[in-house]
Amino acid sequence: MVERTLSKQKYIVAFFISLGVFILGMVLGLFIESERLDYVIFSDQEQRLDLQSLQLHYQFSDQFTEQKNCEALLKTFDTNLLNLERTRERIENYGKDASVNAREFDILKREYVLAQVNYWLLYSRSKKVCDLEAATVLYFFADEEHCDTCEEQAIVLTWLKHKLDVKLLNFVFDGEYEKEPLITLLKEVYHVETYPSLVINGKTFTGFTTRKEILDHICPSLNLSIDECTNVAG
Amino acid sequence: MTLIFMNLSATDIILAITYFLILYFSIFWLLALLDPFVVRKKQFHVHPSVSVIIPAYNEERTIKTCLDSVLAMKYPDLHVIVVDDGSTDKTAAIVKTVQAAATIPFQFLQQPNKGKGAALNHALREATTEFYATLDADSTVEPLLLEKLMPYFADEQVASVLPLLKIKDPKNILQRIQRYEYIINMFYKMLNSKLDCVHVTPGPFSVYRTDVIKKIGGYDEHNITEDLEIALRLQQHHYQIVQTGEAAVYTIPPATIGGLYRQRNRWYKGSVLNSLKYKHIMFDRKYGDFGFMRLPTVIVGGALSIIVIATLGYDLVTYLWRKYLQLRAVDFDIFTLLQNWTFNFHILDLRFVELFVAVCVIAMGIGVMIASFRYSQEKITRYGKTFFSLVYYMFLYSFLLSVVWVMIGVEMLRGKVQKW
């Protein structure tokens, strides 16, 4: 008969080593979260400067009409909006993973909502001063639980952006982020009740909108011929 | 400041517990490395008699090679018993030819097809030797195998001694992958053996004390994994099973996915059913680590496999489905999306915690693999190129085996009966 024992020491040591590895993982997670927060705060500062710079550019164009450079203004708009959207996506993703800094990420998200609105309003004013031709799309999305087709809608807008470049400006809003009253206001103004919803040049489209439907609406405003539009639509 | 873990979903918590348990079990067994191997050895003045029992069912392709290797063994008092379990091919004729030329005691028994357990019991009734070894008819042995194994029977409490089980000349990538698995399993069984926790005595050349096996009632003829059941019964009676690392027996693993699936389905299902059969051993202090760690982990291990594969599988399928829907929305015009694609990656976008877990698991896996190859005295490159098979083994094989666990879960819920 073999004499059996219980290796108590091993059970305890294995537990503490495993716990140690897990705690190390959690500490690493917190460190990364803090680094991510620092990074998006820095991006936020950059974005504010970008907006300030664009506002001055607009004022300059408005006051010194003879020296205005509308093409450059539109290009800067486009670049800034692209950077803004990338940072917004990062804030969304980092915020989802965040544990101790979730509230800070939420505040940053709100700042980015305001920035999107700011850019949109600025574009509306610049359009008059510079007679710009770009079409604007306000895209209201929700998370996957409340929106089955938002990811498809997003890829359609990305595809159109790749095709139309500076002729299309997308402004992206989390329709469920009602901590910011401006979102509620925009939804009321444009009668947005479900997701995805698009406001294309002021007209609201509810539910998933195909590339063709979007192009049919924006091509005339871009002074593109039917052929050119058809080429874009593939 | 919000509470830490506030963002964790139920799935995250289940996965975290799963990973913790996997880590805990791995570390527990690795700690056994620090224990000395205390099995006593003695050289017999007079070699005890040993029968090699070979149950065979339609083994015409392999039985000759198997018998040749047995007859070439250098052991003074060796007997051979072949049991033909109702073969319908030329197995019987081949065995009779070999028997006619044999110079050592050689019995050939025949019975209608009743299964491996019944064949082993048939041979056991005829065996007159002090010890016996079982041998699957598709396996071969090294000439000095018994000489090296028998000294481990120095103590009366040792009822079974096991050699290294190796893959014979792997022909394809699946067999090469199984070679790594077998080598790592041998290392794991050595750790099990240190804590008297070996829970299976495989068909290829496990050596037993004949009187002990007869005393505990022989083989369970209705069991789908009789080699596992007999080991659990030995453990139940507090006998010792010793895994050695000195000599090897070679076996042929399944060469196809289907064959592998059928084999593992039987093995894993057998391990669950037998663990349940001996559930009274679980968490009983008188069975020590075997009752507290080894036996429960058979079932827990299966459950963890199902959780991991189900979660990762669900995530992967969902991800691919979403990508498909997205691309369908732009009529699969990937070219446009890639044409103007700009690099937008930041190092902080990486999922560091997951990466940390992955690095820990891979580092531990590599460490175990190196130790396993050393223990088995094998070279990783022994059978030629290893890169692809190694990558498959490290990243895909465990998923494949987890699928078997998932299927077993489904079959058991549906009440499917398993046959040998």
Sheet with most strands: strand arrangement of chain A: 2-1-3-4
Q: Could you tell me the mean pLDDT of chain A? A: 89
Task: Provide the spatial order of strands within the biggest beta sheet of chain B.
Answer: 3-2-1-4-7-6-8-5
* Oligomeric description of these chains: heterodimer
Biggest sheet architecture of chain A: 4 strands, mixed
Q: For the terminal residues of chain B, how far apart are their CA atoms? A: 59 Å
Following the backbone from N to C, one meets helices and strands of chain B in this order, namely HEHEHEHEEHEHEHHEHHHHH
Describe the protein's architecture and organization.
The complex is a heterodimer of chains A (234) and B (420). By secondary structure, chain A is an alpha+beta fold. Helix content of chain A is 65%, strand content 9%. Chain A is built from seven helices and four strands. Chain A has a four-stranded mixed β-sheet, with helices on both faces. In chain A, a hairpin with a 2-residue loop joins strand 3 (197-200) and strand 4 (203-206). In chain A, helix 1 runs antiparallel to helix 2 (70-97), helix 1 packs parallel to helix 3 (102-130) and helix 2 packs antiparallel against helix 3. Chain B has 420 residues and is of the alpha/beta class. Chain B has one domain. In chain B, strands 3-2-1-4-7-6-8-5 form an eight-stranded mixed β-sheet, with helices on both faces. In chain B, helix 6 crosses helix 12 (352-375) and helix 6 (173-194) packs across helix 13 (387-414). Chain B is globular. The N and C termini of chain B lie far apart (59 Å). The mean pLDDT of chain B is 90. At the A-B interface, helix 1, helix 2 and helix 4 of A face helix 1, helix 10, helix 11 and helix 12 of B.
